[in-house]
Amino acid sequence: MPNRGTRPEDSSVLIPTDNSTPHKEDLSSKIKEQKIVVDELSNLKKNRKVYRQQQNSNIFFLADRTEMLSESKNILDELKKEYQEIENLEKTKIKK
């Protein structure tokens, strides 16, 4: 099962702008996608094989299931953190 392209280096650096809502919506969809990846990986049987897609290619390589699960959880945490930062920025803008 490939990691669907949601990687920490893909997520943009948070830049406070007036149009943070589209970025927030994009993050929200990435978070949902990453949650599905984590759920799928955590529900696999131990003897199942997991494959990682080579970046910008249709080539897949065998990967360690626990390593992929750990990496996917870390990506999910980073996305949630970035989403929370955007929400906090919006709250401070509203207060001003």
From TrEMBL:
Database matches in Pfam families: ASNSD1-SEP (PF21975)
Lineage: superkingdom: Eukaryota
SUPFAM superfamilies, per the entry: Prefoldin
Protein name per Swiss-Prot or TrEMBL: ASNSD1 upstream reading frame
Matches recorded under InterPro entries: ASNSD1-SEP (IPR054148), Prefoldin (IPR009053)
Composition bias type Basic and acidic residues, residue spans: 1-10
Region listing for Disordered, in residue ranges: 1-29
